[in-house]
Amino acid sequence: MSQPNSTQVVDPGTTPALRLTSLDVFRGFVMFLMLAEVLKLSKLAAHFPEATWLEWVTFHTTHVHWVGCSLHDLIQPGFSFLVGAALPFSLAKRQQSGQATWWLYVHAAWRSLLLIALGIFVRSLNSDATNFTFEDTLTQIGLGYFLLFAIARGPHWLAPTAIGVILLGYWMAFAANPPAEDFDYQAVGVPVNWTEHQTGLASAWNKNSNLAWKFDTWFLNLFPRPEPFSFHSGGYSTLSFVPTLATMLMGLLAGRWLLHEQRTSRRLLLLTSAVVVGLLSGWLLNEFGICPVVKRIWTPSFALWSGGWCFLFVLIFHVVCDVWQLKSWSFPLVVIGCNCIFVYLLNWTIKGSIIAALHRHFGTLFLSNASPEFQELFTGLGVLTIFWLLLFWMYRNKVFVKL
C-alpha cells in the first residue's frame, strides 16, 4: 500500500524533506511496544515452562525491578527522544510559514502546560480526586519541553553542552546524597528480600532512599492529597524530568543531523558515533559501579544507555526507509506513529472498555475454552486490531491529533 507524499523523502544523498518516514516508523514502533502490553506475553512463560525462549520474551515485555534495561524499558526513552528529534522539523515548518519568534515561544509554553495537564489527567482516571503526580511520560516531557525548545533555538553547540551539564550535574547531586548506613528501607516500601540494593558509590541510587525520593517527600506534599506522600511503590520520581530533558536533547541532535546534514555518509557517521558513545558510556558507568542503569529514576547512565539504543533505532530505520527507500513494510507502523499522542491517550482511557466489550460479546464463542493466558492473548489481539483500524481510518481521512 502506498504512503502519502508527506512521508516521502527526496534524493537520499541530499537534505531530507521536512517529514521522514524513518521517524514515523520509529514512533509507531515505540507506540506499538506500549500497546502490546495488552497481549500479556509474559504470562505465557508460566504456561510453557519448558520454552526457555519465552523467558527472553518475558524479560523484554516487562520492566526490570530496578537495575538493568529491557526492551520494555526503552518505550518511554524512545517517546521522549522522538519529541526532541521532531523539534527541528517542526521549527523549520513554522519558520517557513512565517510565524513570529514570540509566538513560537508562546506555543512551546502552551504545549508544556498541556502535556503536564494531560499527564496528571491520565494518572487521575481511577482516583476520586486529582492525583498530583508528575512521573507520567507526558508530564515528564512537559516539565522539560520549554527548556528543550529554548535550547533548540540557541546555537548548535548548546545542545550537546547542555546534555553534558545535565548528566554530570545530576550525577553529582545524587552522589553527594547517599542513604545512611542504617537507612530503614522497609519504612519506604522496599521489601525485606529486595535484591537490588547497591553498595558503595552506587548506593546513592537505591530505591526510595535517593535524592529524587527526598525531593518528592517535600514537593508532592505541597499539593492536596488524601494522605501525605512518603514514597512511590515503584520508586518513580518527579526529578526524572531533568535527565529526561537530556534524552530529548539527544533526540534533538538526531533530528538536526537528519534535517541539515546533506551527505548521507555524514548522517550515518554521526548517528553511528552516537550509538557507540551512548551504549559504551552507559555500560561502563554501570559496570564499574559509578552510576547504575536505573530507568525508574532515569540515572545518567540510563539516559546514555537508552539514548544509544534510540540512536541505533533511528540509524536502522533511516537507512532502510529513507536511504534504501524500502517503505512498504512499514505502513502499519506509520499509521500508528502519525497519531502517537492520540494512541497514548487511547491506551489510558478506552482500553479497559474495549476489553470488557470483547469479553461481553465474544467471550462465550472464542474465549471460554481457553486458558487464562490465552484468553488475555486473544483479547489483546482484538484490542490491537480495533486500535489499528481506528488509527487507519484517521490516517486515511488525514485526522491527526497534535498539541
Helix-strand blueprint:
Blueprint (H helix, E strand, L loop, with lengths): L20 H15 L8 H4 L5 H8 L14 H22 L4 H23 L13 H16 L5 H18 L35 H9 L21 H20 L3 H24 L12 H24 L7 H7 L2 H10 L1 H17 L4 H25 L7
List keywords for this structure.
mainly alpha, single chain, 60% helix, 0% strand, disordered N terminus, 403 residues
Structure in a nutshell:
The chain has 403 residues and is mainly alpha-helical.
| Number of discrete domains | 1
Task: Spell the H/E element sequence.
Answer: HHHHHHHHHHHHHHH
Number of helices: 15
Structural class by helix and strand composition: mainly alpha
Q: What fraction of the residues are assigned to beta strands by DSSP?
A: under 5%
Average pLDDT, all residues: 92
Uncertain ranges: 1-16
* Outline: globular
Radius of gyration: 22 Å
Describe the protein.
The chain has helices at 21-35, 44-47, 53-60, 75-96, 101-123, 137-152, 158-175, 211-219, 241-260, 264-287, 300-323, 331-337, 340-349, 351-367, 372-396. The protein is mainly α. The radius of gyration is 22 Å and the shape is globular.
